[in-house]
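Notebook entry, structure prediction.
Reason for the run: the old model in the group folder had no record of what sequence produced it. Starting over properly, with the input documented here first.
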Amino acid sequence: MRSPTRMFSPLFGHSPHGPRDPERETPRDPESDPDPEQESERPPEQESEQQPEQEPDRQPERAGRRGGRGRLGRVPLTTKLVAGLLVGATLLVVADRCAAMYAEERAEQTLRDKLGLATAPDVHIHGFPFLTQLLGKRLDGVDVTVPDAPAGRVTLAEVRAEATDIRLDGDLPLPVDGARAARVNGDVLLAFDDLDRELGTPAQVKFRALDRQSVRADGELPVAGRVVRIHAVAHIRRDGDRGVTTSVSSMRLDVPGIATYRPGRPARLRLHPQAAEKISHDKSKARALLAVPSVARQLGVAPEETGPAMRDDKRLSRITGRPGFREKLMRANLVDLVADRPEALERVGVDPVLARALVRLRAQDLSERVAFSFQLPKQVKGLRLRNITVERDGIRADLTGAGLAVGTARRTDS
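New structure, fully documented this time:
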């Protein structure tokens, strides 16, 4: 049943608790107002379908949106302008850096093509902003690093240069036809690791610093089926203003424990201390050398002593037991025995085949195995080398220049 409160109408002044007036009470329509018991028996599905959908609280959401627009509207105009300027400045910086990176990549590719490099160099443009420099046709400075630059028989491990006060030529902003640097400073490095790789075969030579102006070269060389050790000293000197060259000295080939051969004029084949010690205590080997007049003279043995010593062991012992005899054996030149008395060499323990192969090696050919030089690329003019020194990791030289032109840069300033 309906609650009496629902029938109360203040318009007519009836009390909600007064008697009901049947005439004034609106009759109940059984179809439009179902019985409560029937309502309780209605399936839940039908009840949910007939209930009106509850709309979400849209009014607070609309109010929030209007409030957000209101808060944005309350931001001062100055703050908006500052924010806009910051965004614009950020975009300009990004655009400037993108332009600089593009210019660096173009410069790297151009240098790679011009110099015939295997890998592109690293180019870094100084100064900010870049675009104003480009429009002004002048750059503050550019750093260039060229790795593995070919220089004749050798490769320069690194060439570093800093160019300053650079003038650009061309219909700018693009393309740039050429550039001219007022000043260039840097250095070049010829690394020992590169020398070992490029000059070390087939001799397997290793290079290392000897002093500030010299390089020591040590390695092994196959000769007549034997492994011979090679040693030399390469003295560094400047070749004009743009190159470095070497002069080789102290070249020698060692047969370990037997002999040392030094090519040149005159060529010298001398015994090692171990071999000289054995000969001084071996009568047959000593007689083999004393039988050669040229060797006997080098040992300080007179001809009248040689004959009796060849027959008498005591007289031979007096000769070989003299002070300094072993040192004289080490200083004696046995080159003449290679062609004239190879059997004598064999009797003292020197392989005549190996000795013959050694003396056939020319000093010039051996020097070329350890000598090296390099020149700055012809494509880059205006650069000079200064202060060439030998350091622990290689040979380094300062790089200087003025008025360096790249591309079709004009020779006179505008």
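Summary: The first strand starts at residue 122 and ends at 125.
The old model has been moved to the deprecated folder.
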